[in-house]
Structures
1.
Amino acid sequence: MLRSCTAGLRSLWALRGGREGVPRPSTDLQPAPRLFSAEKVIHTDCALPNPSWSKDLKLLFDQFMKKCEDGSWERLPSYRHRCAQISEDFKNYFLEQKPVKEGRLSQVRLFTRGFEDGLGFEYVIFKNNDEKRTVCLFQGGPYLQGVPGFVHGGAIAAIIDTALALCAAVPGKAIMTANLNINFKRPVPLCSVVVINSQLDKLEGRKLFVSCNVQSVDEKTVYSEATGLFIKLDPEKKSF
Ligand SMILES: CCCCCCCCCCCC(=O)SCCNC(=O)CCNC(=O)[C@H](O)C(C)(C)COP(=O)(O)OP(=O)(O)OC[C@H]1O[C@@H](n2cnc3c(N)ncnc32)[C@H](O)[C@@H]1OP(=O)(O)O
């Protein structure tokens, strides 16, 4: 059990079937589900509109939901807690890691989902599997401020990493970011909505090369451009 927990805690970045995290309990006051147990939990998908979403975000969300109707696009659900059924790849990979204390397990959150609604990262990602690309609609809340009035560069990096990771994600395979390069071209206004267009550029063995741009809703402003390299974990290898 400890070994599994260890692997799980190291797997916040792990992608399984393009889903982020796992279902959370109906309230945080309830006992957290045991790691990797089959206990029933109530799912709360965070990649759905909530009252903090701006008109722009809701409008774009509706447009992409329409695109999902013919099956060419899919909305990726997203949860606060980590994956309950993790890939065997990274169970093996991080077998020797030291576990986080049991008492802290219920506090573990997916970084980009760790804030109250509207205060941090509000986002939803849509994926087009045939075209190997994703679109992330992102609204950076007031707790993400860096330079006054603008989103912190680290927060932008985090959402870019997430968007690229889900673009590169291979169902059932664990991947990690090996390299992330970002050009910050314009500051992103706090509480505004931006669109992150990502694509898988190349697949070379275990290496997945992806790129993205971060644009304003009207596509007139390019805020950032980035490239990323993700590596599929080798089940035969151990990390430590
Ligand atoms: C459930 C919740 C969901 C949540 C979902 C939400 C999404 C969140 C996404 C967050 C993602 C993260 O932040 S992940 C956290 C940040 N990343 C990390 O901590 C990764 C730390 N790095 C590592 O553990 C390791 O370096 C790995 C796993 C990346 C790679 O190690 P490895 O498996 O041993 O691979 P290795 O043999 O070294 O390299 C394989 C090939 O890749 C090349 N390669 C490796 N690194 C690089 C590099 N930086 N730049 C260029 N090339 C590289 C090698 O030359 C080689 O090429 P060739 O010889 O084959 O040609």
2.
Amino acid sequence: MQFIKKVYDNIYWVGANDRDLKRFENMFTLPNGVTYNSYIIKDEKNVLMDGSDSSVIRTYLDNVEKALDGEDLDYIIVQHMEPDHCGSIDFILDKYPNCKFVGNQKTIKFFHQFYPNDKYNEDRFLEIKDGDELNIGKRNLKFVFAPMVHWPEVFMTYETTEGLFFSADAFGSFDVIEGHISAKHYIKKQAWVDENRRYYINIVGKQGKMVTNLLKKVSDFEINAILPLHGPIYDDKESIEFILDKYDKWANFKPEVKGVNIVFSSMYGNTELAADILASKLDELGVENIKLYDVSDNDFSYIIADSHKYSNQVFVAMNYNAGLYHKMDALLRELVGTGYQNRHISFIHNYSWGGKSLEQAKEILEKGKHEYVGEDFIINSSMKDDQEKTLENLAKAIKEDLDK
Ligand SMILES: Cc1cc2nc3c(=O)[nH]c(=O)nc-3n(C[C@H](O)[C@H](O)[C@H](O)COP(=O)(O)O)c2cc1C
């Protein structure tokens, strides 16, 4: 049985849902799976836009066959060589011997790195350059290179007749397709938007400059639909504007929400209690958006996504073997790796006998050009009653900062 969806005249989604994958890239938890999107464009020449992961190969090959409906396949356009899309390419090239692999110099190089040498003759490969066009009959495909919008060889494909932008991994999302393929059914759901952000920030986040370059490069194109390699397609004005606005914010590291993301580490609960008291004081001061994370208990990708989302952040840490507790240390380094910058940050640190946790945290965050808010709040083992006023002052400083 096949599962395909017509998305435009003679264009079919032939992808697959994967609910079995526990972690995307073996790092990022997938509570609701992920899709591998792939599209067949039928014209005088039939084109397959990208492949799929090898885990869904049976469904994928059946879908491609169904969409082709007895016709041959002329091209598979490989917008990047990441295995979650390319684990199926040899199956396609073997099944359709007249099909050519379309890629740029690097895509073709990476193909040969991932697959055994000399498996296919050179004439199976068609190398394209930035701005090249491929006419396939009524439709015309223009290639737009987007290096480092995830991988170095990435290019995207603009279909000029109807203004359809095949955007590789950009504009993708975690979560399977639930019946609907159009993003209009998802963009109003906060949980989906949060997953979309978690995908972008953790996967493409640090390449903000390259994303901004891409957005500039395609700003003259009339885009009537964006068709990414994961998640729904954006095929109406509102959804396209919605996601372009999000990408503008995310790529420029602008916070989306005035609020406080508190991340704590604690072994025996004393540091955690200070984080809870601060959150409660923020609430009493009228702060609406407060989020608390235990760094030991979380897939970092959630904390990282919310660190980019919120304007203010409080890192609450204790000393461990004379330095920063290792999970907090790892989180901060990974956060910096996503380009985290221009946030308003405060600190609470706990010392029982001493260490450099605070200095180390500041050193790791240094290159992000953050603004520090309020006095660092220091605990020795546990918070004391006479410290409540000082913590209240930190809460007030954060509230004033939010109100600016
Ligand atoms: C294995 C271990 C190593 C620690 N190392 C330090 C340290 O080097 N310096 C320090 O001031 N406190 C150290 N602590 C104490 C903690 O930082 C913390 O102050 C104490 O656990 C109370 O906070 P909590 O209840 O939030 O865990 C250590 C605790 C443990 C369990």
3.
Amino acid sequence: MPFITDGEPKPVGSYPNSGIDVLIVGTGLAGLTAAIECVRKGHNVRVLERNDDINTAGDMYFMGLSATKFFKHWPEMAKEFDEISLHNAWIETFKHDGTRMIPPLKVADRLRDAGLNPDTPPGTFQMRPLVYKMYVHQVRRLGIQIQFGKRVVDYFEDEARGKAGVVTDNDERFEADVVIAADGVGSKSQKLVGGQVRAMKSGRAMWRAAFPIEHLDKNPEIKEPGTYAMTLTRPDTMIWVMNHDVTGSEKESWNHTIDADEVLANMDKGVGPSPWSSKYKDLIKLTPPNTIVNFELFWRNPQPKWASPGARVVNIGDAAHSFLPASGNGATQAIEDAVSLASCLQIGGRDNIPQSVRAHVRIRFIRNACAQKLGFSNAELLQDTDWSQVKLDPRKAQPKLPAWVWSHDPESYAYQVYDKVVENMKKGVPFDKDDSVPPNYPPGYRYEPWSIEQIMGDMKAGKTVDLGSGNWD
Ligand SMILES: Cc1cc2nc3c(=O)[nH]c(=O)nc-3n(C[C@H](O)[C@H](O)[C@H](O)COP(=O)(O)OP(=O)(O)OC[C@H]3O[C@@H](n4cnc5c(N)ncnc54)[C@H](O)[C@@H]3O)c2cc1C
């Protein structure tokens, strides 16, 4: 079985050994961040992954500033992130029929116009394969042990012995002081942890593809950057994303590809807005085979149960809370979770693992529920843009990227509030009445359970998404 072990572990700003054995399931962004940060916090880390290798597939996602703050501890990673990031990018916005709605503007100028510092943007669009490779390089440098081909089918905990563990499909058992379930949507830990929520069909899906830019050489007109609405053009890669109504062939899987002909036939049938510009169709025709992912979008309500009864198994990332891919927060919140949990475990130490796990969940839940709601409202905005308004005011097509999301530092926040959170837990203060802890969610917000059914009901009645109390800007 392959291990990644050829590195020399020298984390910057590292902590002494905590004696805490951590077992991580999953090598998504959540699992790999947890592995890297747990090493720095002095924990002993082992990682299990069901696949035979790290899956560097995918196209693009939005990486929020808050998720990159921990790079300051990892200079090689920070350097690589800078190298793979687009500098001097510019954006223009087109309608599906090819009409230009917002003229081209340098991203830096757009940020300056919004009163933001272009050197520290709220986040950047990144290519998943490049970010993943950057993570893999860091994992290698640290010599973190990843055991591939280990499909976890069950989780358990033994409170008396202070241990938790997993069982694989080959009946192998792995144990540790704490197990981090970073195994994505539909985590196998749900049987033990509870908190399973129903996945609701949204009726929507996305065609998305990333491929080498040379494929566009056959049609130079299409190669012009910025010809399409939802595209990212990099020097070597072309990426496009189109939202559409379900056609019957989509799946919630990043490996589920379909033919270009199917996309074109559906466009001709009037799936999604029409008429589509012929330029979009030409782009699809040039997309190489086995490249277009047809990803079905599911909604899941927020749920606060992320830890097992004895708090020795804890969900992070998509395993705890899923985001719509268009909401721009799934990767960011997954990384924040990992950084927060590694920190809480360090603060509490080996004798207080369940307390630290519960404090971490309390620190993260309301923030995530708010980010999910914001993401939902942003995704709806992208989908149902009122173009007549956009012509008048480009900000109408702009997703909200408020300071409470991007300015957050999940590591320093955990150190700032941990003691107070634990004190309030001990006093029995409910998590949604914890006014003595500074918020990491919209200032002034008071958490109230909400559901997607409610939001959809409001939207069908012509109301805008009610985000709730507090300052969400
Ligand atoms: C191949 C792939 C491509 C993606 N591409 C994009 C994209 O282009 N754009 C975008 O916005 N989002 C994409 N995502 C989703 C995005 O990465 C996540 O939503 C987000 O980063 C949260 O990550 P996560 O680590 O919580 O979950 P995930 O990224 O889903 O990672 C979960 C990991 O756990 C492993 N795993 C699952 N079940 C088990 C099990 N039973 N036993 C052992 N291991 C298990 C999986 O193989 C995977 O490595 C992609 C995800 C994947 C897996």
